[in-house]
C-alpha cells in the first residue's frame, strides 16, 4: 500500500505558550512540535498503530507564530508496520521533512 495525501493545513497559534520561552525576542516553533503536527495529521488514518520510530527529522527553515503549515504525507506498508514520509511546507516552500514508522 502506498498512498499520498496532500493538503492538511495547520495554523501555528501565536498565543501558544511555547513561544514565551523559545526563544525570547525571536519566537520559533520547536522541531518537536512540527513532528507532533505530522503525527496529528495522520493518526486517524492508522487506527491501532503507534509511533515506533522517528526515522528522520530534517528541519530546513524556522516556523514562526502565525504561519500556516501544509503537510503532505505518503504512506507505505512495510509488512509489519507503516512508514509515513511527510513534507511540511509554508507558502514559500518546505520547512521540514519527517519520516515516522508506525507499528501495532
UniProtKB/TrEMBL annotation:
Residues 9-80 form the ApeI dehydratase-like domain. Pfam families: ApeI-like (PF22818). It comes from the Bacteria. This is MaoC/PaaZ C-terminal domain-containing protein. It comes from Umezawaea endophytica.
Amino acid at each position: 500500500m502506498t498512498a499520498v495525501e496532500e493538503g492538511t493545513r495547520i495554523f501555528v497559534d501565536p498565543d501558544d505558550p511555547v513561544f514565551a520561552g523559545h526563544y525570547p525576542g525571536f519566537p520559533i516553533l520547536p522541531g518537536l512540535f512540527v513532528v507532533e503536527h505530522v503525527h496529528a495529521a495522520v493518526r486517524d488514518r492508522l487506527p491501532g498503530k503507534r509511533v515506533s520510530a522517528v526515522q528522520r527529522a530534517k528541519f530546513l527553515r524556522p516556523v514562526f507564530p502565525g504561519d500556516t503549515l501544509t503537510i503532505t504525507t505518503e504512506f507505505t506498508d512495510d509488512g509489519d508496520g507503516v512508514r509515513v514520509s511527510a513534507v511540511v511546507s509554508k507558502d514559500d516552500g518546505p520547512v521540514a521533512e519527517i519520516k515516522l514508522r508506525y507499528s501495532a
